[in-house]
């Protein structure tokens, strides 16, 4: 692990405490920790924990598989949902749901992410951030 977790506690508009996480990753070994954090800190509304776990796993796995890993994962509340962001060091990468340059048995990650969230890509100075918003009311 590079660095360590940074957890934030904030108050939402109703005065309730919410938690956010920022966690560095190098490879897939961070996934059990991220899924545990999601189970422990996201509200058990509908299938939110399941959807957030799938989306977080797929975005991190895509970054590791296609870029080689090394970046940060952030999970934080938004009005009406949760935001998952994963930074990587590939500013040129194009994400195409249903297609993978890694073989015909691959390419389902973005399809799953699309099924459970709205998502996009933001270019940053040294790479890109893939973000996904999971709506609580879905």
Automatic annotation (TrEMBL):
GO molecular function: ATP binding
Keywords: ATP-binding, Nucleotide-binding
Bilayer-spanning residue ranges: none
Coiled-coil parts of chain: none
SUPFAM superfamilies: ATPase domain of HSP90 chaperone/DNA topoisomerase II/histidine kinase
UniProt superkingdom: Bacteria
InterPro entries: Anti-sigma-factor_SerPK, HATPase_C_sf
UniProt keyword ATP-binding present: yes
The protein's name in its UniProt record: ATP-binding protein
